[in-house]
Design a protein that fits this description.
Layout: E1 2-7, H1 15-29, E2 33-38, H2 56-65, E3 68-74, H3 82-89, H4 92-101, E4 110-117, H5 127-140, E5 142-150, H6 163-174
Parallel strand pairs: 1-2, 1-3, 3-4, 4-5
Length: 178
């Protein structure tokens, strides 16, 4: 089984990255292959009619190959990062293929996980990003299977102070059923 994790945080080794790694450790402990992509290191242009050559098609092919897709993003001003929203917006053509041409994104069963952190204590700040991720998974035919949210994670490695959350992240991968 191949697990692809996409980290949309510009903070490498930050809270989102740490939680993604813990979930991946759980998957790896049961023999899964995995890869992690940092969106901030890629060149993915915003959606428009005349699209340039960029890194989108490589990411697209990796998403198609994945059995499990993990999307991770911190919450900025009530939503996901611009990096993740730009990637999702590029799937507009996939939506058009599905709606107007009857084409499916993938012909295999895929499951998705959303991981997100934010500095405030209000869990409602995750709602907008969760809605967009659910729509993205629906368009691509990926089943929204699980989520892991952490509030009050403002400083770069705050999640390291929460052993219960780290264990929950590990078990999410280890106990995930396909």
């Amino acid at each position: 089984m191949f697990v692809l994790a996409i980290n949309a945080s510009p903070r490498i080794n930050g809270n989102t990255d740490i939680l993604i790694d813990k979930v991946l450790e759980g998957f790896i402990s049961k023999g899964c292959d995995s890869e992690k992509i940092y969106l901030d290191k890629l060149n993915i242009a915003a959606y428009r009619d005349d699209l340039p050559q960029d890194d989108f098609n490589n990411v697209l092919e990796k998403i198609k190959a994945a059995d499990i897709l993990i999307l991770g993003s911190p919450i900025y001003f009530g939503s996901m990062t611009a990096q993740l929203k730009t990637l999702i917006d590029r799937f507009q053509s996939v939506w058009e293929d599905k709606i107007f041409r009857g084409l499916n994104f993938s012909h295999k069963r895929q499951k998705g996980i959303f991981i997100s952190v934010q500095g405030d204590k209000k869990s409602s700040y995750f709602d907008n990003a969760r809605s967009i991720i659910k729509n993205f998974f629906a368009v691509t035919g990926i089943e929204y299977s699980n989520e892991l949210f952490c509030t009050e994670c403002e400083d770069k490695q705050d999640v390291l102070n929460n052993n219960d959350l780290l264990q929950e992240a590990f078990e999410m991968g280890k106990d995930f059923s396909f």
